[in-house]
Each structure stands twice: as structure tokens, then as C-alpha cells.
Design a protein that fits this description.
Belongs to the DnaG primase family. InterPro entries: DNA_primase_core_N_sf, DNA_primase_DnaB-bd, DNA_primase_DnaG, DNA_primase_Znf_CHC2, DnaG_bac, DNAG_N, DnaG_primase, TOPRIM_DnaG_bac. It catalyses: ssDNA + n NTP = ssDNA/pppN(pN)n-1 hybrid + (n-1) diphosphate. Its cofactor is Zn(2+). The protein is α+β, with helices and mostly antiparallel strands. It has 4 domains: about 5-95, Zinc finger, CHC2-typedomain (DNA Primase, Chain A, Alpha-Beta Complex); about 105-240, DNA primase DNAg catalytic core, N-terminal domain (Alpha-Beta Complex), CATH 3.90.980; about 260-435, 3-Layer(aba) Sandwich (Dna Topoisomerase Vi A Subunit, Chain: A, domain 2); about 450-638. The chain contains 29 helices and 15 strands. The strands form 4 sheets. The protein has a 5-stranded mixed β-sheet, sandwiched between helices.
């Protein structure tokens, strides 16, 4: 049984031949050029010491100059793993995250049909190219001259012209023996409900669209009539053309990007052509739609960090911001996006004409990381003058960052967002970059919380120690609860230092094991946090403070304990403030504070008995609160 050719095209586009071959060989670094996908190694198929085995990663083929072994990635897996063809395809598809299609007995017939359509498209390209030099194309040639496109550039991009005639291409192809239904199937003509098909492109400059291998798959056209319904028109979806899986100038840009190690993503045909004429040939463009997931994957196959170059108008900025939501779930370490928003009112062609290619290169060199646009999108034009609005911002950002699949990358995004948040809201200096933990005393010091609060310090230390131990054992859970951990009050200075160091580390790639994380934290702090935390018996026996514990259950327990801790501290805070207000002028304030303390007590007392003060401090505090309420201390006594 045969599989659809489109499946093999996608499989090869998603699979790096050099990455597969690297499992079997060691590259010769002197001869290899990874930037160009030009790799050399001793041949895995015969015994040799010299590097005569060549991999052309961009074309997807290998060849040995010693034993003449050759083929593509499927052949390589078949030969090295001793697999039959279909098993090799299934193995590669699984690695690429692709679903095997249902085996289609008509696949060969479809492949032949696609080849036929591609040839018809080539005939159309040649016809329209010839029309550009005809008498009817005078306005089109004048337009291209005004756009300062040289004859060499026009030839390089095979620009053509579709005369404003209803059936000129259709009749030409029919005269060459092409069936009417095939002309329609190629997307070159439209079949009305009745009557003869008519040309899709009329009165337009034509831009051939080719796939990564250089095969003509569709056409684009720019209208010469300013009153045309669509200024730019692409061919329809066909057996050849899926606009969400194609890029304009894909093949030439991929080749040019091998030298520059970069890729520019512009908005349309003319931007790409203007960039190429200015010496920036490593540019592509989507085809009349917003950038899709498939197009992003194609771009990342060309360059690790494509630069999205958009016009500096509202539409360009909106397009950049929409792309963020598409890209976030697809990001991987080393695979990202940068954004170059051009000055307002200018596209690449305008900028190059006004100030030269150097001005465009300067703009590209200042392209910004995606996290900057994400932050601007979520904060621009908004006011955060209340806790509720700030909390809404935090919730929205957490939801967005949760879409990032890789934990390390997600933590780096969280760190960058945290720095921007601190810059916006002010507050203490950002400890994530300048914090010097060794200034913290190693011995714990009691919080100055007043006579009625000091007996609670033992229970607070217990809870804070267990909270930190659970965070260290389950760093992914700590990352997800980072905002709650950051806001949580800590009464013990040394444990607060561990918390701050942990928050700092959450902004960096977390170490693979809790032991490695503890080692890094010890270096930051100047003392061993493991020993400090283990001194509390509850840490040693807590089942959720073990790395092997179920992460989901441990995260729920962590959140519950943090809320319990905040509840207990809330009692003391409100009682202390209420007692200060008893001086006499704020009766309503005292009433409100005691009410808040009562609510905090009720929440806290529903918590685990194991995490209350062993000496009854919290019960004593609760009893004191009850007496204050019973005595109606807010009522002035005569």
C-alpha cells in the first residue's frame, strides 16, 4: 500500500537527516559546516578512517564517496536499523509526532495527479512570464519600475502578468491539450455553475509560489485596478497548495539562511522581493493568512530564531500580538521568535528606499524577544491601581505561561515577567539578579510580633520549613505556585532567605534532582538549606516532601499548607492592628479588623492540627481574640 505524497513531504520537513545520522556517526568537525547543513563523517556502512560520508541536511540526502551508499532519511533508517520500509516510516513518524495516515490504495494515482497539476502550473508560470513583455502589460511594467525592481530581480522571482481577459490562459492551456477539469483543479480557472471556466487571475501582476523543493504549486496576483475587490489574490487550496503549510520564497531563503544563520519573516511578496534585492535574500512571507503552527515549524527548520518583521501600523502590531498565542505552546529551548516592528507608516520596501539596506539591517539587529511583546500586550493602556487589577494581571500571565510545554523555558519566561512586574509596580529591589544571600544570619531570629504573638513562632517555623521542603522536592509545582509563594509572609529570617533564593532559582533552569537544587541553593545562601529544613521533625516525616511523592497530590498539599499559614498569620496581624487602633479614634476600623481576624481564625482552625503551635500559642491567640470580641472592646466605656 502507498501513502499520500503530502505525508512524505511533511515527514521529511519535520525530520532532520543529520540528527538521525548523528546517532550512528561522529561528525568530522574540520570538514563539517552545520550552518549550511553540510556534514561529513566516516561512513557507517563500511569500515574506514577518513570522513567520506556526506550528509546534505538541507536537501535531505546522504552519499558515501567510498562505498556509494546513498538515500534519504527513510533509507538510512532502513539500512542502519534493518527495518522494512513501512516500519522505518512509522518509526520516523512517531519521532516527529505525526499520525500515520490510513493507507490509501489510490495514493499512486493521486501522486501522478499532483505531478500533472504541477506541470500545468509550470505552463501557467511560463505563459504569464511571457505576457509581462507584451503590449497589454505596459502599466504593469511601469508599476514595477516605480517600485524600482530591476530586470534581474523580476527574472529571479519569475514575475509575470495576467492580462485583463476572461479566458486567455484557459484557452492557451486547452490549446496545449490540457483538460478543462485539470485547469480548474490546479486553481488556475474557476468553474461557474454553467458555462465555460474562466481565468482566476485577470489584470494582475503574477507572483509564482513554489514549495521548498522549487515546484510550482500556486500563483499570487496583485491587482492593477485600484478598485479591485482584492488588492492581492492567492490561488485556492488544491491538491498542490495548502497555504497554511507553505511560505513564499521558501527554497531560496533556506539556502541564503545557511550563510546568515537567520531568517526574516515579512508580510508579503513585495516585502520579500525588496529585501532580496537589497541583499537580504533570507526572507519568507506567509501567503495571505496569519502565520500558522505549520509555518512556524517550517521557519524553525530554517533558523532557530526567525525575526518577524512587521509594518509599524496598528495592523502590524495586532498581527505580532496574535502570533504570540500561536507560538507559546510550540516554543522549545533554542527555538524562539524575535520581533522587528518597523517605524510607523513604513514597510521594508519603504525603509530600504528611504534609508538604504543598512537601515533595515539596523532595525533587524534591534529585534526584540517575544516576552517583551507579551508583556506589552497584557499591560498596555491598563491601570493597575488596585490589588484586584494586579491579581487579574497575574492570573492572565500565569495562564499564558502555562501554555509553554518545556519547564525550563517556562521558568525563564516567568523570571523575565517577574522582573518586568517589579519594574512596573516598584517595591523592594529585584532580588532575582542583585540579591546577596550571604548577608542573612544563619541562626533563625524571632519576628517582632508583640507579646501575644511570640508563642506562635515555633508553629510558623514548622509550617515554613515544610512549605520550602515541598517546593524543593517538586520544583514544577513551585513554579506553578510561584506567585502565591512570593506573596506568602515568612516570620523566620533564615527561612525567608531560603524562600527568596528558591524564587531566584525558579527563574533559572532548575536542576534535575532535589539534591542538585539543594547544592545550588547552599552555594547561594552560604549555608546548607537541607540541614536547616531537616532540623524540623515534620520535614523528615512529611510524605509530600519526598521527590518520589505524587506531584499533583503534593501540589495540593503545598497550597493547602500555604493557605493555612497565611490564615494563622492573619489572626495575629489583625489583632495587633486592632489593639493599636484601640487608642480611641477609629471605632469602625477596630470592628473591621476584629472581624477579619475572626475570619482568619476560622480558616486557620480548619487546618491540620499537626501544623499548629505545640505549646498552644495559636489557641491562646484565638482565645484572646474571642475575649476581645465578647467584651466589645470597640465600644467606648464611660
Amino acid at each position: 500500500m502507498s501513502l499520500p505524497p503530502a505525508f512524505f513531504d511533511e515527514l521529511r520537513s519535520r525530520t532532520s537527516l543529520s540528527a538521525v545520522v548523528a546517532r550512528k556517526v561522529s561528525w568530522d568537525n574540520r570538514k563539517s559546516n552545520p550552518g549550511k547543513g553540510d556534514m561529513w563523517a566516516p561512513c557507517p556502512f563500511h569500515q574506514e578512517k577518513t570522513a567520506s560520508f556526506h550528509v546534505d541536511d538541507r536537501k535531505g540526502f546522504y552519499y558515501c564517496f567510498g562505498c556509494q551508499a546513498k538515500g534519504d532519511v527513510i533509507r538510512f533508517v532502513m539500512e542502519t536499523e534493518n527495518m522494512p520500509f513501512m516500519e522505518a516510516v512509522e518509526t520516523l513518524a512517531k519521532e516527529a509526532g505525526m499520525q500515520m495516515p490510513a493507507r490509501d490504495p489510490r495514493a499512486v494515482e493521486k501522486a501522478e495527479a499532483r505531478a500533472g497539476l504541477s506541470e500545468i502550473m509550470e505552463m501557467a508560470v511560463r505563459f504569464y512570464r511571457a505576457q509581462l513583455s507584451g503590449a497589454k502589460a505596459a502599466d504593469a511594467r511601469a508599476y514595477l519600475e516605480r517600485r524600482q525592481l530591476t530586470p534581474e530581480t523580476q527574472s529571479r522571482f519569475e514575475l509575470g502578468f495576467a492580462p485583463d481577459s476572461r479566458t486567455i490562459l484557459f484557452e492557451h492551456l486547452r490549446g496545449k491539450g490540457v483538460a478543462a477539469e485539470d485547469i480548474v483543479a490546479a486553481g488556475l480557472a474557476i468553474q461557474p455553475d454553467s458555462g465555460t471556466p474562466y481565468d482566476r487571475f485577470r489584470g494582475r501582476i503574477i507572483f509564482p509560489i513554489r514549495d521548498a523543493r522549487g515546484r510550482a504549486i500556486s500563483l499570487g496576483g496583485r491587482a492593477m485596478d485600484p478598485n479591485a475587490r482584492a488588492k492581492y489574490l492567492n490561488g485556492p487550496e488544491t491538491e498542490l497548495f495548502d497555504k497554511g503549510r507553505a511560505l513564499y520564497n521558501h527554497g531560496p531563503a533556506r539556502e541564503a539562511a545557511g550563510k546568515t544563520q537567520s531568517l526574516i519573516v515579512a508580510e508579503g511578496y513585495m516585502d520579500v522581493i525588496a529585501l532580496a534585492q537589497a541583499g537580504l535574500g533570507h526572507a519568507v512571507a506567509p501567503l495571505g493568512t496569519a502565520i500558522t503552527e505549520n509555518q512556524l515549524q517550517l521557519m524553525w527548520r530554517i533558523a532557530d530564531e526567525p525575526v518577524i518583521a512587521l509594518d509599524g501600523d496598528k495592523a502590524g502590531i495586532r498581527a505580532a500580538r496574535r502570533l504570540i498565542d500561536v507560538a507559546l505552546p510550540l516554543l522549545q529551548p533554542g527555538k524562539g521568535l524575535r520581533f522587528c516592528i518597523l517605524p510607523e507608516g513604513q514597510d521594508p520596501d519603504d525603509l530600504i528606499k528611504a534609508d538604504g539596506a543598512q537601515a533595515m539591517e539596523a532595525q533587524l539587529s534591534e529585534a526584540r524577544p517575544m516576552v517583551d511583546l507579551l508583556w506589552e500586550r497584557e499591560t498596555e493602556g491598563k491601570t493597575f491601581d488596585s490589588p484586584e487589577r494586579r491579581a487579574a494581571l497575574d492570573a492572565g500571565l500565569r495562564k499564558l505561561l502555562a501554555a509553554i510545554a518545556d519547564p525550563s523555558l517556562r521558568s525563564h519566561y516567568a523570571a523575565a515577567i517577574r522582573e518586568k512586574r517589579q519594574a512596573l509596580f516598584g517595591g523592594p529591589p529585584a532580588q532575582r539578579s542583585t540579591w546577596s544571600p550571604r548577608t542573612i544570619a544563619e541562626a533563625p531570629t524571632a519576628g517582632a510580633r508583640g507579646s501575644m504573638l511570640t508563642s506562635e513562632d515555633g508553629a510558623a517555623r514548622l509550617r515554613e520549613s515544610v512549605i520550602l521542603a515541598r517546593c524543593l522536592a517538586h520544583p514544577d509545582a513551585a513554579i506553578r505556585r510561584e506567585s502565591l509563594l512570593e506573596r506568602l509572609p515568612f516570620t523566620c529570617n533564615d527561612l525567608a532567605a531560603i524562600r527568596d533564593a528558591l524564587l531566584y532559582r525558579l527563574g533559572s533552569p532548575l536542576h534535575a534532582t532535589p539534591d542538585a537544587a539543594m547544592e545550588a541553593l547552599a552555594e547561594d545562601l552560604g549555608f546548607d538549606p537541607a540541614a536547616r529544613l531537616s532540623a524540623v521533625p515534620h520535614v523528615r516525616i512529611d510524605p509530600h516532601s519526598r521527590a518520589e511523592a505524587d506531584t499533583e497530590v503534593a501540589e495540593a498539599a503545598l497550597v493547602e499548607l500555604m493557605e493555612l499559614h497565611a490564615g494563622f498569620l492573619g489572626i495575629g496581624d489583625e489583632v495587633r492592628d486592632a489593639e493599636e487602633d484601640l487608642g480611641g479614634t477609629a471605632d469602625e476600623g477596630v470592628t473591621w479588623r476584629l472581624k477579619q481576624a475572626s475570619l482568619a481564625r476560622d480558616r486557620a482552625m480548619r487546618g491540620h492540627r499537626d501544623f499548629r503551635a505545640a505549646d498552644g500559642g495559636e489557641q491562646e491567640l484565638s482565645d484572646h481574640l474571642s475575649r476581645l470580641i465578647a467584651d466589645e472592646v470597640w465600644i467606648k466605656k464611660r
